[in-house]
Amino acid sequence: MASGEGTEGDSDGGSEELVLTPAQLIHSLEQAWLNEKFAPELLESKPEIIECVVEQLDHMEANLKRAKRGDLKVSVHRMEIERIRYVLSSYLRCRLVKIEKFFPHVLEKEKSRAEGEPSILSPEEFAFAKEYMANTETYLKNVALKHMPPNLQKVSLLKSVPKPNLDSFVFLRVLERQENILVEPEMDEQREYTIDLEKGSQHLIRYKTIAPLVASGAVQLI
C-alpha cells in the first residue's frame, strides 16, 4: 500500500508530489498530533496529511472486509485502525479547542498572513472560526452589551480574549542538529546566550525560542 501527499507549486503552475509509505504517513500524523497537543498556539494546518490518512483508513477497512474470518491478523489490523482514528480525532479536537480559545487572534493572524505563507487554518476551520466569532459577538450583544450605556456597548475581542502564552516552557526532542539558538534570559540581570541542540537530545525550553524549529520539523514536542 502507498499514500501520497501532494503540494501545489506556486511559481509556474506546476505541482510536486511527495510520496509517503503508510508508515511514514502515520508517523507524520503522530508528529503533527504531538506538536499540536503540546504547543501553546495553533500550528500550521496539515490538510494533505489528514486527507491521506482518511484515504488510508478507508483502504485498510476495505482490506479487512476481504480478509478471512477468524484470521488473527484481522484483530491486529482492527486495533491499528482504531489507534489511528484516535490519533486523528484527538488532533482535530485539539485544534478546535485552540480555535475556540483564541479565535480573535487566530483570525487576525490568518488575516495578516503574507502571500505564500502557509495557512494555520483549513478552509473548514476558517469557516468555523468566523462563525464562532460571529456567534460570540451576537451573544455578547444580546445578553450584555445592549443593556449597557452607549459608550460601553462596544468591546474588542482581540483585547478581551487572552493570547496564547508563547513564553510557556515545552519539552522537545531534537530531530536535526541546530546551532547558535538564541535563548532569552530568565532574569533581568542575565544576558542572552546561544546554545547548540544536538540530534537526539531532549530539552525543556521556552516555546517562542524554538517555535520556528517546530514549524520546520527540526524538533518534536514531547
List keywords for this structure.
222 residues, alpha+beta, three-stranded antiparallel β-sheet, two-stranded antiparallel sheet, 17% strand, flat
Overall strand count? 7
Structural class comes to alpha+beta
Largest sheet: 3 strands, antiparallel
The rounded distance between the terminal residues' Cα atoms is: 29 Å
Query: What's the helical proportion of residues?
Result: 40-55%
Shape: flat
- The overall pLDDT average reads 88
Number of helices: 6
Q: Write down the secondary-structure element order.
A: EEHHHHHEEEEHE
Low-confidence stretches: 5-16
With strands numbered from the N-terminus, the spatial order across the biggest sheet is 6-3-7
The radius of gyration is 22 Å
What's the topology here?
Blueprint: E1 3-8, E2 15-20, H1 22-38, H2 47-66, H3 72-111, H4 123-143, H5 157-160, E3 169-174, E4 178-183, E5 193-197, E6 202-206, H6 207-216, E7 219-221
Helix pairs in contact: 1-2, 1-3, 2-3, 3-4
Summarize the structure.
With 222 residues, the protein is an alpha+beta fold.
Written account of the structure:
50% of the residues lie in helices and 17% in strands. The chain has helices spanning 22-38, 47-66, 72-111, 123-143, 157-160, 207-216, and strands at 3-8, 15-20, 169-174, 178-183, 193-197, 202-206, 219-221. It has 6 helices and 7 strands; from the N terminus they run E-E-H-H-H-H-H-E-E-E-E-H-E. It is of the alpha+beta class.
